[in-house]
Amino acid sequence: MSDIHFPANAFRPLKNNPFLTRADVERAVATITRPVEHFRSQAGARVRCGIGAAHFDQASADLEGFSRLLWGLVPAQVGGADWIDWDPIVRGLAAGTNPQHPEYWGAVPDRNQRLVELAAIGFALRLVPSKIWDPLDEEAKRNVTTYLVAGHSRPCHDNNWKFFRLLMGMGLRAIGADYDQGLDDAYEAELEAFYLGDGWYSDGPIRRVDYYIPFAFHFYGLILATLDHKPAYERYRQRAHLFASDISRWFADDGAGIVFGRSLTYRFAPAGFFGALAFAGEEVLPWGVLKGLYLRHLRWWASRPIAHSDGILSIGYAYPDLLMSESYNSPQSPYWALKAFLPLALPEDHPFWSADEMPYPVTSALSVQKHPGFVIANPPGDAIVLSSGQQCLHMRHGAEKYAKFAYSARYGFSVESDQVRFDEAVLDGMIGLSDDGKHFRVRETNETAMIADETIYATWRPYPDVLVHTWLYWDGPFHVRVHRIETPRPFKAIEGGFAVARGDADQDITSIEKGRASIRTLNDMSAIIDLGSTVVRSARLHLAPPNTNLVSAKTTVPQLLCDIPAGESILMAAFIAQANGPSVEKALASVPQRPDIVALQALVGKGVPVTIMKNTPSL
Questions:
Q1: Which ranges carry the DUF2264 domain (predicted)?
Q2: N or C: which end of the chain has fewer CB within 10 A?
């Protein structure tokens, strides 16, 4: 088979980029955006990279392709890039806002996807008017102004979308347009309702806390604070200072971010927070530390196959994967990743670029974050969060994205591909219960959730008549899960550990014993160990269905299986996964002691409710 050859960088457009300097980052923008030009319409207003559909109309999807490129092109232009061809963009802006043109983007309804994309145009009008506004003729300028004013007046969804009106307003002021600035004031006030404290927001009233906090709330807030200079916007700077240390713990020492929540197809957009700090001149951590967090994240992505063979970014995470996508992901959606390139607006001699890259000074101490409901450990090569679970059901794979017990930067998480084949369920980081051996339920939402002494406690109901109490805590390199299940009828249960990429046949070393299973691949180890449950649990190494894990297309996950009788049962197990190496045997030998149920129950009386729980009862 030695005569089979593939292109060296197939599917990895950034593979040869070392991401060491500002020039490397600017080159990445060119690498990512140039292939898209092959899919631009004749008049320039519409960009369509594929034939898949999102829930919104095609014109909105085409506008998405037009506008999202601006998040990278505009900062590069401000920083002096001389390779950008603005002519098709200017022609496209004129055509897209002209009601008489075939490429017109269409009227802007309330709460419509067009509002998302108009924010990038407001950003461009503020920063590069000489490139995108001045070349327009007077009729085109009137059309652009009319379109943007109409969009600015439309109500947005009750979440991070409210920033889009503020960004549109910023662009309208930059071109001297007359519009209702009182609408901006209203949304500024309404955004305050989402602030939780300590630099954290919820993404709307449902108390969802995920990557939208760094790459939306803080990203937009820092842009406004830098470009608009309103006294009220100073709060965005202050909150970024409070937030920076917490969010830095979401990243492993190799740059990988904890895989959690929705919109992960935006890939390296989380780096936009660190870039926005630089853009705003906020040295919340030493410049070299911020630069390291930023560049390491980009370097991690450079090695991943995130594009199709034509260089177009794919829907997926670490590889093309429609299974994990959201209903609002069009083929153009992934280009929100370009928000990472905001610091290109800074010159090369800015201290963010000129500082020597430094590691983030992570200690062995756990990071307890009550607002997202996390307890995070940062072992070498990973960042692992124990999660209280969040209230997020109204989306595809919501339970997998928000309600698992553990999430990892190195191992990601998996989504289920078949809800009626219980025996084939992946259930990494979760426990599944089935009363018929076919259908199954997992944690979707909590009744209560709290943190006490670095231990998470939650109660939840997989079925209305079944109550589960769950405790999660760290014990050395392991995390421990304890479930007390109260049920009037019997169930079958499967609980999974971390899913690791499996090799070809005979490459992996496996071990299955009573209540214990482990796998060692060329690169990783994952194990699950029962700690004395009140029911007998058998172990297995489950070959998960392909394309279910967001990081690796083919995985193996250690699992424990059991029958749960009517009444009360207690399940206890330890879980570990780490890079394969000399320390593995020592880690596996440090199995935690059997959990002290009495001590765990005593914690319930002194816990602090996690912020994401809305109207959590007093415990």
A1: 21-359, 368-573
A2: N
CA distances from 393 to 32, 161, 223, 274 (A): 33, 19, 31, 30
Q: Are 485 and 543 a contacting pair, CB within 8 Å? A: no
Nearest residue to 162 via CA among 188, 143, 141: 188
Measured between alpha carbons, how far is residue 145 from residues 62, 186, 294 in Å? 20, 21, 36
Give all strands of the β-sheet with 406-408 in edge-to-edge order: 367-369, 374-377, 384-387, 406-408
Measure the CA–CA gap between 141 and 128, rounded to whole angstroms: 15
Instruction: Identify the residue whose tokens are 């000129």.
Output: 354
**Separation CA 356–CA 291 (nearest Å):** 8
Model pTM score: 0.96
- Kindly state the tokens that stand for 487: 């049920």
Could you give the CA distance from residue 225 to residue 220 in angstroms, rounded to a whole number? Answer: 9
Rounded CA-CA distance 554/503 in Å is 8
The label of the residue with tokens 């899919």 reads 39
All structural domains of the chain, each given as residue ranges with its CATH number in brackets, are 34-354 (1.50.10), 369-609 (2.70.98.70)
- For the stretch 208-234, pLDDT in tens is 899 999 999 999 999 999 999 899 999
* Phi/psi of residue 576, nearest 5 degrees: -150, 145
Q: Which helix (H) or strand (E) holds 243?
A: helix 234-248
Report how far residue 350's alpha carbon sits from residue 360's, in angstroms, rounded to the nearest whole number.
Answer: 20
Tally of CB atoms within 10 A around 484: 19
Which residues are CB-contacts of 409 (< 8 A; sequence separation ≥ 6)?
Answer: 250, 251, 252, 256, 257, 258, 259, 382, 383, 384
CA atoms within 13 A of residue 11's CA, in its CB half-sphere: 12
Using alpha carbons, list the distances in angstroms from residue 450 to 65, 369, 439, 453, 597: 42, 11, 30, 10, 17
Q: Which residues have a Cβ under 8 Å from the Cβ of 492 and sit 6 or more positions away?
A: 422, 433, 434, 435, 437, 561, 562, 563, 564
Among 240-244, 322-326, 342-346, 601-605, the range scoring the smallest mean pLDDT is 601-605
Give the residue-averaged pLDDT of 398-408: 97
Contact 413, 260 (CB under 8 A): yes
In the structure encoding, which two tokens stand for residue 40, read together?
């631009």
